[in-house]
Structure formats: structure tokens, C-alpha cells
Amino acid sequence: MTVLHHEHETTGAQLSRIRQLADQFQAPAGAFESWCALYSGLEELEFAIMQHINFEEHVLFPRGLQQPATAAEGSSCPLQLRQRSRT
Question: Does 62 fall in a domain?
């Protein structure tokens, strides 16, 4: 799990850099609609990835530490991620 924690930290830093380069996802005044759509999509991507990381860190990892995993048993997860509704 140490590798996954490292990947999460690296991904968070990469997303932060994208946000910085994209001026906090604020398109310049007078930007074309496609530019605005790109920034909106980047923000949605950031949200989805951070939601996924949060779910792994706070739900899946603790469960994995509590119960030894066995491939023969299979696994089932009663929780499902819900997509953020677009507004």
C-alpha cells in the first residue's frame, strides 16, 4: 500500500500543477467555447480523480488492513462511487 500512497501523492502534485498551469481553471476573458470546455473538463477530471483517491484512502485501504485478502474468496464492495451530477 505504500506504493499506492506514493502514487496518490504524485497524482495530487500533478493535478495541482495542471491547475496552476490552467490558471485555476479560469479561461481567459474572451476565450473560445472550446477553451472553456477544456478547462471545465480538466476540473471535472481533477474532481473525479480526487474522489477516487479519497475513496481508496479512507474506505478501501482501511478495509484491506482489517481483513486479509484472499484471491479464492473474491471480493464484493457494497459501496459504489456516484458520479458528480453536472450542473
Answer: yes
Task: Give the residue among 8, 42, 6, 9 at the shortest CA–CA distance from 25.
Answer: 42
Length of the chain, please?
A: 87
Tracing cell 498551469 back to the chain, one arrives at 21
Please give the grid coordinates belonging to residue 49. Answer: 480523480
Q: What is the pLDDT of residues 31-47, one digit of tens each?
A: 999 999 999 999 999 99
Tell me the residue range of the domain where 26 lies.
2-66
pTM, rounded to two decimals: 0.69
pLDDT tens-place string over residues 64-86: 777 765 544 555 554 554 555 54
The answer to the question of residue 47 being in a domain is yes
Note whether residue 6 is domain-resident: yes
Residue 64 burial (C-beta neighbours within 10 Å; 0-12, 13-18, 19+) = middle
| Residue that has been written with the C-alpha cell 484471491 in this structure | 71
In a domain, 73, yes or no: no
